[in-house]
Structure formats: structure tokens, C-alpha cells
Amino acid sequence: MSKEKASRYRWVVVVIFFFFMLLHQTDRLMIGSMQEPVMKEFMLTDFQWGLINTGALVVSTVLYPIWGYLYDRYARAKLLALASFIWGATTWLSAIVRTYPQFLVTRASTGIDDSSYPGLYSLIADYFGPELRGKIYGILQLAQPIGYLLGMILALMIAPLLGGWRSVFYLTGTLGLVIAVLIYFGVKEMPRGKAEPEFAGMDEVGQFHFNWHEAREIFKKKTMWFVFLQGFAGVFPWNVITYFFFGYLMRERFYDNNSVLLTMAPVILILASGYFIGGSIGDWFFKRTNKGRIIVSSAGVILGAIFLFLAINTPVEARTQFFVLMCITAIFMPLSSPNVIATVYDVTVPEVRSTAQAVEYFVENFGAAAAPALAGYIATVYNLQTAILWICISAWILCFFFYLGAIFTIDHDVHSLRAQMQARADALK
Question: Is 400 in contact with 332 (CB distance < 8 Å)?
């Protein structure tokens, strides 16, 4: 394949992966919009509802290290096709079952494919160099909030027309099977490390495969420890907002389905833009200082916390003020996400990047798996407003301090990786 064709083809891969993430996130996140009908059908408490979402998080948490190892050892594209097939199959099972215990198990099984993203991001890192990764991850992560919005539309508008929430599960499950075929035949594997700047202009970059020595080196990089810590705290707010915010709007701010859609659709679209904005700003700053991505991330979490606090404490009758503050919150909430992913790849060698990110996600979900159940418990004792506010603000303040720690370690870890890549390139010349 010529360089021009290869350059064009990598954008085809981005498009395929974007639709994989878009439809997968739609399937994964629309359960939050289905809170009221699902709780009504199975006659659930807030705590039982929280357990449904916690189950999938527990399963994905356990499987992250396994997926990470497999991605670094075998062909990532084929494993991603398998993950898409599992997504379709488990979603179909969730639509078929008829009792709460069965639904609890089948929804938990959807967590198997939820831990598949480290392979996707590491494969993209071998198509695009460090100077573009933040933007590309920002583009891919647009799929998450847009998928959330699409899931909301499917749950609130399409599901009633099709006969209920189960019909939508049949639809998204089928799309998962279709995407599996598309990835299997349409995405080519890329040699690990191909896009590193030290290998520019070289036809052969060597074969770098998973090895335990480099895997252990992940834990010797101080920046990764701060990444792990911020990940542990940072996923709490996302899970609480994903699974409880619709219930909060309906029960405590007295929104109907149409009001929820008209309020949240613009907020989610603004939030989607925040991923690309965050990745682009992070790339711009990173070209000028190794601390660039960390600076953008720390600013995002603290400003997001401030404006969410103001929004949640807005009087119920002040809907316009609430809407404006949520829109501002949505700008800052996702700024850190593409930068954290890019930071992992800025400090780890290509053959263990899936493992490194899988470990990060493992740490994230190890704590965040309890977030829905914790929020449900606090909501039962107090209310949803208290649950959302306490968990989100506390977690983001912790993230801010963890990012401050990473500012003091990132220079050394980036320079260390670049020196290692240069030594490998020199050995091949």
C-alpha cells in the first residue's frame, strides 16, 4: 500500500471505529434513559436499579486485564470484531429474559465487551503519531455522548412506538453483529510502534510483542500512578450522571419526557464537542510542553465541578438558568478524557499499551463499579440531588489534586519513552 493510500485508509479505520463506539455506547448507555419503564416493569427500588448497572461494571472490571493482555499478544482488529459480536449477543439476551434476576445476569454479561476499548485505542496509536492522537481520540470519543443522545432518543421516543424497551435492545443487538462483520473484514492490523516519530520514513519497525518485563515497567512510571488514581475517582461522576440523571430530572425537577429531551439534547451535543476541543487543546499544549495534556485535564475537572455545583443548586423553577449552567458544565466535563488516553501512550512502549490502559480502566472500574449502588443508597436515604452532588464534586476535586501530582512526573516519563524509541530506531538502521 502506497503512503498516500495508507494515509487515506487510516481515516477509514477511524470512521469504522467511530461507528463501533457510537452504536456500542448507544446500546450501553440507553439503559439510563430506560430507568423508569424498567423499574416499573420489574418493580425495583433505587438500590436494585443501581445493582443492574453495577453488575456490568464489575464484569468489565474483572476482564480489563485479560482483554489488555490479549490485545498486546494477538491481532487487535480480530479481537475487536469478537467484542462486537459479544455485544450483539448479550444485548439480545437482555431483551429476551422476563424476570429481574435474569435481567440482572444478562445486563451484567454486557460488561464483557465493555472492556474492549484498550485494543481500539492502541491500534489507533499505531496509525497516528503523538502529535495527532489527542484530536483522534477526541473525535472517537464524540461517539460516547452522541451515543448517549441517540440512546435517549431511542428510549424516550422510538421505544414507545415499537412496543417498549425490549424492541430497542433487539435493534442495537443486531447492529452489534453487523459491526462485528465490518471490523473483521474492513480493519487491518498495524505493526506496533509504526507511528512513533523515531520510525518515520522506515519501512520496517520490527515486531514488538507483549513481554512481562515491559508490563512491569508500567508500574515504575510515576505518571501512571497519578493516571490510575485520577481514573479511580474520575469515573464515579460519569456513572452516577449516566444512570441517575434522567431519574433526577423527572422526579426532583419534574421534567416530562419531552422536557428531558429538549434540555439534555443540546447539553449532550455541547459535551460531545468538549472531547474534540479537549483533545485539540491538549495536542496544542503538548507540542509546547510535556505538561500540556495534564494542564488541560486539571482545568477541565475543576471547572466542571464548579459549574455542576451551581447547576444542581439552581431552583427547580429556574429552568433556563439550570439549562445554561448545564451547558457550561458540559464544555468542561470531557476535556480530560482524550488527554488521559494520549498521556498513557506518551509514557508507555507500544507492545504494552493495551495492557497499560486496561490496568487504568481496571483501577477506574474497581471503584466506580460501586458508584451506581452508592448513588442509589444515598438517594434512598436523602435524594438524587444529594447523591449526584456529593459524589461528583468530591471525585472531581480529588482528580484535580492527582493531576497536580502528574505535572511533576510527566517530563521524566515522556523523555524516557522517547529515548527508548530512539534506541530501537537506531538499532534497526
Answer: no
**254 φψ region: left (φ > 0), alpha (ψ -120 to 50), beta (else):** left
**How many angstroms separate the CA atoms of 103 and 109, rounded?**
10
Amino acid at 42: F
Q: What is the per-residue pLDDT for 405?
A: 96
The answer to whether 372 and 235 have CB atoms below 8 angstroms apart is no
In this predicted structure, the answer to whether residue 336 has a pLDDT above a threshold of 60 is: yes
Domain holding 71: CATH number? 1.20.1250.20
pLDDT of residue 367: 65
State pLDDT tens for residues 263-316.
Answer: 888 988 898 899 999 999 999 999 999 999 999 999 999 999 999 999 999 999
HEC string of the chain equals CCHHHHHHHHHHHHHHHHHHHHHHHHHHHHHHHCHHHHHHHHCCCHHHHHHHHHHHHHHHHHHHHHHHHHHHHCCHHHHHHHHHHHHHHHHHHHHHCCCHHHHHHHHHHCHHHHCCHHHHHHHHHCCCCHHHHHHHHHHHHCHHHHHHHHHHHHHHHHHHHHCCHHHHHHHHHHHHHHHHHHHHHHCCCCCCCCCCHHHCCCCCCCCCCCCHHHHHHHCCCHHHHHHHHHHHHHHHHHHHHHHHHHHHHHHCCCCCHHHHHHHHHHHHHHHHHHHHHHHHHHHHHHCCCCCHHHHHHHHHHHHHHHHHHHHHCCCCCCHHHHHHHHHHHHHHCCCHHHHHHHHHHHHCCHHHHHHHHHHHHHHHHHHHCCHHHHHHHHHHHCCHHHHHHHHHHHHHHHHHHHHHHHHCCHHHHHHHHHHHHHHHHHHHC
Max mean pLDDT among 167-176, 296-305, 377-386 falls in 296-305
Q: How many domains does the chain have?
A: 1
CA distance 73 to 187: 18
pLDDT digits (tens, 9 = 90+) for 42-91: 888 878 887 887 788 788 888 988 999 999 998 999 999 999 999 999 99
CA angle in degrees (0–180, nearest 5) for 276-178-112: 70
- List of residues 6+ apart from 11 with CB closer than 8 A: none
Interior CA angle at 60 toward 43 and 52, to 5°? 5
Instruction: Give the per-residue pLDDT at 206.
Output: 63
Quickly count: other Cβ atoms within 10 Å of residue 224's Cβ. Answer: 23
Host domain of residue 388: 3-428
Q: Are 410 and 343 in contact (CB under 8 A)?
A: yes
